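Following up on my earlier thread - several people asked me to post the actual chain instead of describing it. Fair enough. Here it is, all 51 residues.
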Amino acid sequence: MNSALAPMRARYDELMANPDTINAILEEGSARARELAQRKITFLRETIGME
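Reply from S.P.:
Thanks for posting it. Predicted structure:
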């Protein structure tokens, strides 16, 4: 079991040692989610005639 979890533990340790990396990943994900949400909201508003 330890050998199966070793890569995940190594990645966890790497991320915990570099909080700036975590913040960059979160910011990138947030920007992508915001863009997708905006496109969906625009589509829905156009579909129901709000814009």
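The CA atoms of residues 30 and 38 lie 12 Å apart. That should answer part of your original question.
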